[in-house]
Each structure stands twice: as structure tokens, then as C-alpha cells.
Write a structure and sequence with these properties.
Length: about 100
């Protein structure tokens, strides 16, 4: 039996609109695919409705389970804390998707 186990990373990401006024926190096992879906507005929902096409923050977790736990934590944060988290790694709130595609 093969002892190699495929590691499935999880990603927490934050999307916003062009004015940086709405913050959406999501989780996925494929960041490139999921951000692409948001940008192309393939799925109808919150992000599509409010034009959240700008990736301003993301983290990689060791597993999808730890990513889900982190997503829940961040969703419970105050808006100011979320803004400070984004600004700590992305001061200009640039679209980081250009770096991952």
C-alpha cells in the first residue's frame, strides 16, 4: 500500500468591490478556480450581486478543515479588524489575483 497521502490545502480569501466598501470572506480548496468564478460572476450570490471581484487577501491553511475554522473566526471579527488584517499585507488594497493567475 502506498503511504503517500495527497495533502489538500485550504484557502481563506477576502473579496471586495472596486470601492473597497464591502468585504466578503470565503473558503475554498482551489483559490485560482474560486477567484475566477467570482471575477466571471459564474455563480449568482452575494459576490455577484455586489460586484465583489477584487481579491485583497488570502491565506493558505494545512487543510480545508483548518481553513473553515479560520474563516469562521474571521467572519466573527469586527470590520475594523478585517480592514487592519487586509492592510497589514496589502496596504493599497490592490487586486492580488493578478499575482496568482
Amino acid at each position: 500500500m502506498n503511504s503517500y497521502k495527497h495533502r489538500k490545502y485550504g484557502y481563506i480569501y477576502i473579496m471586495t468591490n472596486k470601492w473597497n466598501t464591502i468585504i466578503y470572506i470565503g473558503v475554498t480548496n482551489n483559490l485560482i478556480r474560486r477567484v475566477g468564478e467570482h471575477k466571471s460572476r459564474l455563480t449568482k450570490g452575494f459576490c455577484s450581486k455586489y460586484g465583489l471581484t477584487k481579491l485583497v487577501y488570502y491565506e493558505q491553511s494545512e487543510s480545508i478543515i483548518t481553513a473553515i475554522d479560520r474563516e469562521k473566526q474571521l467572519k466573527n471579527w469586527r470590520r475594523k479588524w478585517k480592514q487592519e488584517l487586509i492592510t497589514s499585507i496589502n496596504p493599497a488594497w490592490d487586486d492580488l489575483s493578478e499575482n496568482i493567475f
